[in-house]
Amino acid sequence: MTGSIPRKERRVFTPEFKSQIVHLYQNGKRKCDILREYDLCAPLLDKWIKQNESTGSFTEKDNRTDEENELIELRKRNKQLEMENDILKQAASAKEHETCSGRRPTMKSQQRNNRY
To answer: How crowded is residue 115: how many other Cβ atoms within 10 Å of its Cβ?
Structure first.
């Protein structure tokens, strides 16, 4: 594509680096100077400052709200229930197929059904 703006390569910052940058800000260095010197964007620095003040950690997991944690747990539970529901549907379908075919259940299929 001609005329497109080249994207910067995504950088990964260590927790130590983030902590040092926040420490510079807390010791009075101006945000604009930090942003220019380290080639950072303002929202990123604001995020690091907020994370440091609220939890002292820079990991996303440690900085989730109670609602975000609840939503993650509910999604996990929902996925588990959907899987259980699929298993039950398959078992019911197999049992219906066995009954509709007019066959009498064999001893082996009865033992299999009794396990559930």
So the answer is: 5
